[in-house]
Write a structure and sequence with these properties.
Shape: elongated
CATH class: Mainly Beta
Largest sheet: 6 strands, antiparallel
Mean pLDDT: 93
Helix content: under 10%
Low-confidence stretches: none
CATH topology: Lipocalin
Strand order of the largest sheet: 1-2-3-4-5-6
Number of strands: 6
Structural class: mainly beta
Length: 84
């Protein structure tokens, strides 16, 4: 995938042993292949299979710039976001 600034964005996904998404990584590189930014989402699940938490990490090059946890609930309560 390429964006309007001629940077190249790619996404990779890993799965856990039950076939669910374990991590989602999105990287943006310049036309020379130099890493500009990266976002890594790590997923945890309840025993019932629903998403429990997603930890989102944003990087500027290799430096962590933002980290937050999105907590999901199985009782219908709206998800909450905590800045870590």
């Amino acid at each position: 995938m390429m964006d309007l600034d001629n940077n190249i964005t790619s996404c990779t996904e890993t799965k856990d042993d039950q076939g669910r998404r374990a991590t989602w990584t999105e990287e943006t590189r310049d036309v020379d292949g130099v890493l500009i930014s990266r976002r890594v989402d790590s997923y945890a699940y309840y025993a019932t299979g629903e998403i429990d938490t997603i930890v989102q990490e944003d990087y500027d090059k290799d430096a962590l710039t933002d980290k937050r946890e999105v907590k999901h609930f199985v009782d219908g309560k709206q998800p909450t976001v905590e800045i870590l």
